[in-house]
Input
Amino acid sequence: MNVSACLQTESLAVGYDGEILLNDVDLSVAPGEILTLIGPNGSGKSTILKSIAGHLAPLGGAVYLSGKPLERLTPHELSLELSVMLTERLRTELLTCADIVETGRYPHTGRLGILTDADREAVRVAMEEVHVWDLRERDFMQISDGQRQRILLARAICQQPRVMVLDEPTNYLDIHYQIELLNVLRRLVAKHEVGVIMSLHELPLARKISTRVLCVKGDGIVAAGRPDEIFVPEVIDALYDLDPGTYDPQTGAINLEGE
Output
């Protein structure tokens, strides 16, 4: 076991309804690292993230948080260690954006869930970090998808976990906010030594933000390494079955046939 890892899996098997989709998933993320999963749609990236976050029961192997088996952690212990931002649409009624972000503080409050001044300050700082403080009184269901995505990131940040699990966090965001969100993650990782594991579709962004990259395809992990080892034509072309297209490592673009 990697003693420096804040999250680690060993021979993890994941899937649905007892049917294994991916086998032998071995990954780890240490404090201060950003581990990014890339691969074709439907390859199982979200299934891996849901399994390590405790939303799906593993079908084999193990997940460890700070060296402790995931299944031995209480829900409260898990919420202190790990925050999650998945792609499912959150449906709420009559909750403001600030109300949503405040739920990230509940692991740190008492049984009654009463927020202290320090909790409210953590909420303000998190919302300002992703530039949504001006939305604090707005109904969460009356703002845009991109704004909701940033609200959910603020909630994950103010939970102050050791590990953040993010499934396609740049969904619904234009390029300005994609860059802003990833800059927020980079600052968070550097300042607070948080470990981040996430999935991304945008290969140029994954190349720039990641400490390490895992390629998911078929029934498991087909390649792993530093961005300079992964974002090369032989790996990306095979991962996404680009032939007759090709991946250009200089620009991060996909060249069409004949280009």
About this structure: The first helix runs from residue 45 to 52.
